[in-house]
Amino acid sequence: MKISLRKEISFYIALASSIISGITILFFMGWRSEYVYLYPITTILIIFLLVFFSANSILKRGISERAQILFDLSGKTADGIPNDDTYKLVNDVNQEMISFASKQTREIDKLKEMEKYRKEYIGDVSHELKTPIFNIQGYVLTLLDGGLEDPAINRKYLERTEKSINRLISIIEDLETISRHEAGELKLTPEDFNIVKLVEEVFEAQEIRAKKRETELHFDKKYKKPIFVYADKMRIYQVLANLITNSIYYGKPDGRTQVSISEARDKVYVEVSDNGIGIAPNDIHRVFERFFRVDKSRSREQGGTGLGLAIVKHIIEAHNETIRVKSKLNKGSSFIFSLSKPA
């Protein structure tokens, strides 16, 4: 390997390491720390130099050893013609270098993708928090400018302020829930319970919301016997509530939300389907992303945070189960997740 190529590879390794370290440092220190520029930059520079020289040294030593082996083997060949061992070693070295270069390329691509996701995520969080905060500010300023003495205005604006505050609290609580899931701080408390009964409880809790949207909540058939699962009852209630609420929000007037339950070996499958607006094919893979909305205007109008399905996915995966979605635009959507049967 030429010296320039070796240094170039070392440079990319050091760059990748320093970027990862920088992102980690900034997340732990906080973006608004008064030392946000001084300490991270100094630390990143030190990490870059250490990794660069270390990688360069390792690559140089490894290549020198390979070169010496090749030299020894070539010296043992008859009439200067390389033998099979030499060809094999050359091929092994070539494959190792190709694999190494490919791995570094993937790492760099992954870092770029993480950086893109981080920027989008921060932008989404800022936007979601900014909307209710600005609303609260506007209502309070109106009240302070004389609206407080006007009975026709003060109560209405105070109610709107309360609504915006509740939305702000919901966003923060959902963000906290997701963060705790990812950090592994939310511990599951699994137990045996009747999933049919739990669905009925969610139906009862969502009955008023469904009537306002003229949506019918029902099972696909009458379940005469209980169907038991082994899971965290409170978390699965949260999953069902999110899925059923979404189906109501994104449903059509005089629409329906249907829940069906099936069994297969040691698994129970729960499907929540509707005949609502559906999801475009290009958006199906994004439905579990944070703040992603199929219809942003409708979701915000109903007070949704855009975090419900992200939480659902985290809860199901925490149970080591799976969830998937099927949908056709303007036809409806179905969310199917699995649960384990009692041992």
How would you explain this protein's 3D organization?
With 343 residues, this protein is of the alpha+beta class. 61% of the residues lie in helices and 13% in strands. It contains nine helices and seven strands. It has helices at residues 3-29, 38-75, 84-144, 151-182, 195-205, 207-212, 233-249, 296-302, 308-318; strands at residues 190-194, 216-219, 228-232, 256-264, 267-274, 323-328, 332-340. It has a five-stranded mixed β-sheet. A two-stranded antiparallel sheet has the order 1-3. The protein is extended. The relative contact order is 0.08.
Rounded to the nearest angstrom, the distance between the terminal CA atoms is: 58 Å
Low-confidence stretches: 297-301
- Summarize the biggest pleated sheet: 5 strands, mixed
Order of strands, main sheet, comes to: 2-4-5-7-6
Helicity range:
55-70%
DSSP strand count = 7
What does the overall shape look like? extended
Mean pLDDT comes to 76
The chain-level structural class is alpha+beta
Strand content: 5-15%
Number of helices: 9
Strand and helix order: HHHHEHHEEHEEHHEE
Rg of Cα set? 29 Å
